[in-house]
Write a structure and sequence with these properties.
Strand content: 25-35%
Structural class: alpha+beta
Strand order of the largest sheet: 1-2-4-3
Number of strands: 4
Number of helices: 2
Largest sheet: 4 strands, antiparallel
Radius of gyration: 15 Å
Distance between the termini: 36 Å
Shape: flat
Order of helices and strands: EEHEEH
Length: 93
């Protein structure tokens, strides 16, 4: 994975996330939209398998979009850890 910031302001960011697909981008978008400081979170993949995903995030004036992305990624990581623990317990049963 490689991240390339295309455009950034105090409340908006547009970035390319190379090497990823809808799987990560959908989860990240959903986590971002759970944040009340995030006004818009969306992504595009113009030509699946050929072009890279481009994520767009717009926040209110109270939060930097980079901080919003970091927090959303942290929540996703926590959910994955919770699932791994639960699954491991059930798989032993």
């Amino acid at each position: 994975m490689e991240v390339k910031i295309i455009r950034k302001t105090d409340t908006e960011i547009e970035m390319e996330v190379r090497g990823e697909s809808h799987t990560l981008m959908n989860a990240l978008k959903a986590a971002l939209l759970d944040d009340k400081a995030v006004e818009t979170a969306t992504y595009t993949i113009e030509f699946p398998g050929v072009s890279e995903p481009v994520l767009y995030v717009k926040t209110g004036k109270s939060e930097d979009p980079i901080d919003a992305i970091k927090k959303a990624a942290g929540r996703l990581a926590g959910q994955c850890e919770d699932f791994t623990k639960l699954f491991s317990k059930k798989a032993k049963a």
